[in-house]
Amino acid sequence: MAEAAPIRQGFAAVRRQPALVLGETSWRWCFAVSAWVVAATAALGYLNSVPVSWREQMLAQSGEPLLALAAVAHALRGSAIRLAGAVIVAGSGIAVLWMLAAALGRMVTLKVLLPDADARYWPLLGLSFLRAGLFLAALLSAAGAWILAGFARPAGDATPGLVAAVVLLVCIWLVWTLLNWLLSLAAVFVPGGGQDTFGAVAAAVDLVRGSFGEIVLTSLPFVLLHYAALAGAIAAGVLAFDLMTRASAEAAWALPAVALGYFAYADSLYITRLAAYVALARGGEESAQAAVMKGLPEPGASLPHLGLEPEAS
Length: 313
Fold this sequence. Notes:
By secondary structure, this protein is mostly helical. The chain is 78% helix and 0% strand. The chain is globular and about 70 Å long. It starts with a helix and ends in a 20-residue tail after the last helix.
């Protein structure tokens, strides 16, 4: 099938250049470790700023779960401003760290996928900035949707408000997923074509409009493989947790092993899908160039330029 050619080329690119998977996994995991360090530092700083009286210490050390929980709740009372400040500072730091790391990691992987093109950092940083801003907008929209759903709840009946909240959250998640996917696809068009951030987004929109069927047929197998792996990881995690509680606590090592295995597989699948998108965009451009050389109307004339010049005859 012609539609399967980009998928085959994506897997072939990963087989020819295993450094693609290594590079994609490396920058993502380095960011994850750094983000956890920032979050842990902010959490410890917040906890150290909470004053604890000797009565609260005695209740927390009493050995009674309810008394200890009451002591923690009493100690944290009135510290919402400090908590909000810690969340804002840590969240801002993690967002900036992700933008820098994502742009650098994508520049490196695109240089491997398109060695003849020039992957520029600043347009990729702009795309990362748009994705981070989109994620923040989705979080704020989700919070607003939850508040609006609370107003829609009749007195004494929480069901309509819960249904409205779920529907609004699903809609927000779908919109965020589609826009985030479009911005990630736009990174393909930064190398070689002289595209800036918004030019790359426009090029991605043109590709989707001109090759919508091919885009869907290329993306669907990767989505199915991803969710199949997610289901398998969840099932393996539940089994490991059951063994840990029933047989031995030593089985707890399986939980991080399953999580790391899933994340490594998801990262390799992501870069393979990106390579398939590169092959799809390159094939569309080559067909348009061939049509121009033959004096025919360009099929999908809106397909963007990847900086790949036709070979001299």
